[in-house]
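hi support,

uploading two proteins for the ticket. first:
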Amino acid sequence: MQTPDSATAVTEFDSARDAYLESMARVPAEGFAYLKPGDDYSLGGLAVHVNFVLEHYTNVLAALLAGGFAECRPEDPAGLEERALARAREALQAEEVQTELARTRELHQGVAQMVDRLSADLTRSAPVWFPGATETYPTSVKDVLGWLTDHYLEHVPHIEALVADWRRGGSSDPVAVVTEFGEAFGRGDVDAVMALMTDDCVFEDTDPPPDGERHVGQVAVRAFWERFFGETESPRFDTEEIYGLGDHVVCRWRFSWGHPGSEGHVRGVDLFRVRDGKVAEKLSYVKG
């Protein structure tokens, strides 16, 4: 029987699954075969990867239950990870991806049912030997559920970035990347904007003068965009000119806000640096 804490955790787990499945549902069927150079799994193979993680942590929960929260060493079936890694790189067809997503729903439900059985021990920790570890790691049911929830959510912007990369033909051309970034910015789509920025991204705002404010990392930059779009009335962004020089891109723009009769605007320039197909730096300057 669920406790209030376990019910909340499972609700968040379910919501994260739904967000992941919705992102996969928006992938064009012909895009599933795309494998970005250097990646470990194709766009469709990401579903295989997610299922492996779900199955692996199902085995962790089973070990906690079987051992009565004593020290334990969860084991996956022989070859599970190796098979998943190999299949995740394949150019899967849409039908194969749908089969994997159906499996996702089954595995997810299995985790939720196991959490329900263990709800009274939600925060009880056990010393767990994870593969390759040199010491045990204290692990609770709540920890596992949180890791799985976060894993779903981290792949939502990842999927969007891979789709954008596939649409560009796999190109990491800096001007193409910044153009895609500008289109997402013009829509006020914070998830798409952040999917096109590196984990260690840097954004320098134009305010306060004379130096502006520097925001570093995904969390800080996302917080700024969410606040900016949330507080700006009818924002509109138009690119006036864009050109590149190596991994740097210069973009002249006009930013407008408000409704006719009460609108305002500023014109300015952004200096971008692109790394591995994503924006690593965005330094903004305005006139006046």
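and the second one:
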Amino acid sequence: MEILSLIQSDPLVYKNDSLIRVRNLMNRSLLPELPVVSEDDLIGTITSKNLVNILPKVKIENLLASHIAEKDYIKSDVNSELSYLAKEFLSKKRFIACIFKEKFIGYVQRRRLLSFLLDSNEEIKNYVSKDFVTVDLEESIKKIIKLVKNEVPILILKDGQPFTAFSPEELYFIIFVSNYAVRKIERDFETLRGDERKILKMRINQAKLRKLKEEGKIVHLPPLTVADMAKNNFLISETQTVGDAAKIMLNFNKNIIAVKEGGVISDLSLLKALV
């Protein structure tokens, strides 16, 4: 019954929601995957990765969430063991698991499973991955956009040393909610009013954007450079513990952390400790 403490039922995407609505929900909740429902029935899930790949190819004016809901989501019974959920996340690499008790009752974020590892004193060195590509802090944001399609973590270097890291999921999320995708989304701009209209209009100057962020009306600012995107860096040492890494990921909504000695550690790799 440990799963019960992790279940959430908000936010949800409804089948007739526009991509504008989806974008704003993801932006405010910092979730790169959300369930799509019709009344209390689950249709599927929608991911920022899929949205980034779709946007350049389609006209979105009449595109609704139900049109692009994915069926390959993780499905779990409310009584499933944590180890089962961890295995499903490791296998399918999704961000949420949809939970059922006869019918859909909510979902569990992958990262929230890390709350069961906060007291672990095991060193992280056995979970560090060398599977990544590097990008210098001074590189163009366009390089990040090209590299994300390789589905490999990106380690950001500053003066040749590890500085911070981003998972493909984090990058697809940032790309979708920020300026890169807005050019396509703005076709639906006139359907919004008030604050939502302000949040979407990314062409206003940076001072106004930052004011909106301070007021809590927008979460992500459009990254202009890799340095801008990596402003809040996270770095951990191989001698630190699994609990240390889990705490950083939970507190700062990170899926991956750069390792000082060279490498990255992800929430997925830490979930192996629960299997």
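thanks. also noticed: Residues 132 and 152 are 6 Å apart (CA to CA).
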